[in-house]
């Protein structure tokens, strides 16, 4: 998993270096939310308390507010630890590139976010290519998946396509089981296949637990 995380990081760096000339962030993927969660070294629910600009050493114009060559340093109060060596009710420092061309994130002070990222040395880093969003945008299905399913099934690599044309494709509505409809459960086997369970009145929990009487493979 560490090797795959390093590959993903290198892909982001390579693509953003090229895309900087076009002022556009280009992420590898798209990846399944569970894969992004699995790639991450840490994942928290946190509120931004302070935002500072940290200029990089090779910034061409020094500490100029208009200079795009800086990093953003956020002081984030940890409300909930979802993954990693973070402490609840503590304040941690999280970094992101200051330029959107390098997939930097512009977090707002006072806002609460779902923040997942990587550790570089002793520093915590996030970017637009990771599993990051305002907490108000996290759906109940995603919250349930993060809290229960993703951690339990860590290591299953999702190869399913995003935004499928047919509902029986592997990815469907935030990758969680939908009550009285189709849903999936990861199968830790050869190829890490995505198994589809058809719920016939068993509901959300029954679907997630894989207790439906039959399934079809996506």
From TrEMBL:
Q: What is the lineage of its organism?
A: Eukaryota, Metazoa, Spiralia, Lophotrochozoa, Mollusca
Q: Name one GO molecular function term.
A: protease binding
Keyword match Oxidoreductase: no
Residues annotated to bind Zn(2+): 25
**Bridged cysteine pairs (disulfide):** 25-103, 27-129
User: One Pfam family, short name please?
Assistant: TIMP
Query: What is the name attached to this protein's record?
Result: NTR domain-containing protein
Q: What PANTHER family does UniProt report for this protein, alphabetically?
A: METALLOPROTEASE INHIBITOR, TISSUE INHIBITOR OF METALLOPROTEINASE
What are the record keywords, sorted?
Disulfide bond, Metal-binding, Secreted, Signal, Zinc
Organism of this sequence: Mytilus galloprovincialis
Localization recorded for this chain is: Secreted
InterPro entries for this protein: Netrin_domain, TIMP, TIMP-like_OB-fold
Query: For this UniProt entry, what's an example GO CC term?
Result: extracellular matrix
């Amino acid at each position: 998993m560490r090797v795959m995380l390093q590959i993903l990081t290198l892909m982001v760096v390579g693509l953003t270096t090229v895309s900087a000339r076009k002022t556009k962030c280009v992420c590898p993927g798209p990846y399944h939310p569970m894969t992004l969660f699995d790639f991450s070294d840490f994942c928290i629910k946190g509120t931004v308390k302070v935002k500072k600009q940290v200029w990089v050493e090779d910034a061409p114009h020094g500490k100029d507010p208009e200079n795009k060559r800086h990093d953003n340093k956020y002081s984030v109060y940890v409300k909930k630890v979802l993954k990693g060596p973070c402490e609840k009710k503590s304040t941690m420092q999280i970094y992101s590139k200051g330029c959107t061309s390098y997939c930097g994130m512009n977090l707002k002070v006072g806002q609460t976010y779902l923040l997942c990222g990587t550790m570089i040395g002793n520093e915590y880093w996030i970017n637009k290519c990771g599993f990051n969003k305002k907490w108000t945008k996290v759906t109940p299905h995603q919250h349930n998946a993060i809290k229960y399913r993703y951690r339990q099934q860590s290591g299953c690599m999702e190869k399913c396509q995003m935004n499928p044309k047919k509902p029986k494709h592997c990815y469907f509505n935030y990758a969680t089981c939908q009550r009285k409809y189709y849903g999936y459960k990861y199968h830790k086997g050869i190829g890490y296949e995505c198994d589809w369970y058809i719920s016939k009145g068993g509901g959300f929990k029954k679907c997630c637990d894989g207790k439906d009487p039959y399934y079809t493979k996506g």
